[in-house]
Design a protein that fits this description.
Oligomer: single chain
Distance between the termini: 37 Å
Number of helices: 1
CATH topology of the largest domain: Thrombin, subunit H
Helix content: under 10%
CATH class of the largest domain: Mainly Beta
CATH architecture of the largest domain: Beta Barrel
Largest sheet: 5 strands, mixed
Strand content: 35-45%
Shape: globular
Mean pLDDT: 93
């Protein structure tokens, strides 16, 4: 009897732990860089009506991703009182102004808490009212930074007004901080999201005035440290990398990739990035992956970096000397870099490691696969869709499937493994740039006007 009792307790504890994990998607791309536990209840087929558990209209324009904790789905938005430039899908030459647009209209910067089960807005909070302090790219928004939650509070950052704030799960504002709003390179606005680690909140703000990375005490909002950076623009979220040797904060940048210890001291850096850097660093198989890939740049690199690096570990300090121009270039390595390619980096999307495979989703709609540990080629550029406007959202994976979401709102479901196989296409027929969240046996997809909860109705 005691043995059966303890077995039952262990089983229930395991189920509770699995349920807790399934309910959590606390930050941009979740806790495992787009990968979640397999669960047969997760959907692989949907449309505007099929397997839609609910859809809720969202006011304003924002490309921040949803985050999920328990029964809470948090999203942010910037709601204008005037007419705003409409985002345009695809990769294109925006003209002489480079696509930078300003707004003099009063905006309301909002946080929304939606009920996981019903999609009803549980509460909404206005954190600021006024005109944006910086410009944005016509395809960007004034609320593109994804919030982060620890299950007790939700933390938001609006780079367009320089505001950081913490709210409790009931919507009470616990603290606010003003870190300044600064124009970035070409006036494209921001998108680098905050990250949490053991009671500290980290934010990067790279701009043309005064770039920095800053650390806050998450409970009080007190600034702990701030370190200047020689950068001019960046849309990449910092990544806290825990490994056997130490814990470090890895940041991508236009000028350099830099890693800091938890007190802001520089550990290592490398030169050799592109003019604009968007993808977020992430780790798998004991490596941290960093990339950037502004279209047309001579160097569009992907680096797989080993733990324990120090000093300058640059492979291609001079972009003009990166090597051949044929995609993806020659694979290289060094004592600190397990493998790298000079032309494998992406512009907007962040890559995905699922199992043994490293998937690169190129912005024009090609998928490439390499061995995640060695960088050896698995399959080359394979077109996902010839008709898609482009891809900005990052891929995700579960149940042996890789999902890629186009700007048109089409999700392409691809079999994982060493051979490319497209299984189906799920269409929502609305512009979509935000990366989805996966939690509660569901996929939460934000389109331009609404938030969907997709799940198996059966």
């Amino acid at each position: 009897m005691p043995r059966q009792f303890f077995a039952t307790v262990i089983l229930l504890a395991s189920l509770a732990s699995a349920t807790t994990i399934a309910l959590q998607w606390p930050q941009f791309r979740g806790s495992r860089a787009g990968v979640t536990d397999d669960d047969p209840r997760l959907p692989d087929t949907w449309s505007e009506t099929e397997n839609v558990l609910w859809k809720t209209p969202l006011p304003g324009l924002a490309w921040s991703s949803p985050v999920v904790s328990g029964q809470h789905v948090f999203v942010t938005s910037a709601v204008s009182t005037g007419a705003e430039a409409t985002p345009i899908k695809g990769l294109y030459d925006p003209g002489d102004d480079q696509g930078s647009v300003k707004s003099a209209a009063v905006h309301r910067w909002m946080v929304y808490d939606l009920d996981v089960e019903t999609g009803a807005i549980r509460w909404e909070r206005e954190l600021h009212r006024g005109p944006p302090l910086i410009a944005r790219h016509i395809k960007n928004s004034f609320a593109s930074e994804t919030p982060v939650t620890d299950g007790q509070r939700v933390y938001v950052y609006f780079g367009s007004i320089g505001m950081v704030a913490a709210l409790d799960m009931s919507g009470t504002v616990l603290w606010k901080a003003d870190i300044g709003a600064f124009e970035g390179h070409l006036g494209f606005g921001g998108a680098a999201s905050p990250v949490l680690h053991r009671g500290r909140l980290y934010i990067t703000n790279d701009n043309t005035v005064r770039s920095f990375i800053v650390s806050f005490d998450a409970a009080s909002g007190k600034e702990i440290w701030r370190v200047g950076r020689e950068e001019r623009g960046n849309w990449s979220t910092p990544f806290v990398w825990e490994h056997a040797l130490r814990t470090e904060i890895v940041t991508a940048g236009t000028g350099r990739v830099r890693s800091y210890d938890l007190d802001g001291r520089l550990l290592w850096e490398l030169r050799g990035m592109t003019t604009l850097t968007v993808p977020t660093p992430f780790a798998a198989h004991g490596l941290v992956y960093v990339s950037s890939g502004y279209p047309g740049a001579g160097l569009r690199p992907l680096y797989a970096i080993r733990p324990g690096a120090s000093g300058d570990i640059s492979l291609w300090p001079d972009p003009a000397g990166a090597g051949p121009s044929s995609f993806p270039g020659e694979r290289r390595s060094s004592p600190s870099i397990a493998w790298a390619y000079p032309l494998l980096g992406t512009y907007n999307t962040t890559a995905l490691v699922y199992g043994d495979y490293f998937y690169t989703l190129l912005d024009r709609g090609f998928l490439v696969c390499h061995d995640a540990r060695t960088g050896a080629p698995v399959y080359g550029r394979t077109r996902v869709s010839a008709s898609s406007s482009g891809f900005t959202a990052s891929p995700w994976a579960y149940n042996g499937l890789v999902f890629v979401l186009s700007e048109d709102g089409d999700t392409f479901v691809i079999q994982s493994g060493p051979a490319y196989k497209l299984l189906r296409t799920n269409a929502l027929n609305e512009m979509t740039l935000a990366t989805p969240a996966v939690a509660a046996q569901s996929v939460f997809i934000r389109t331009q006007s609404k938030l969907y909860r997709i799940g198996r109705k059966s």
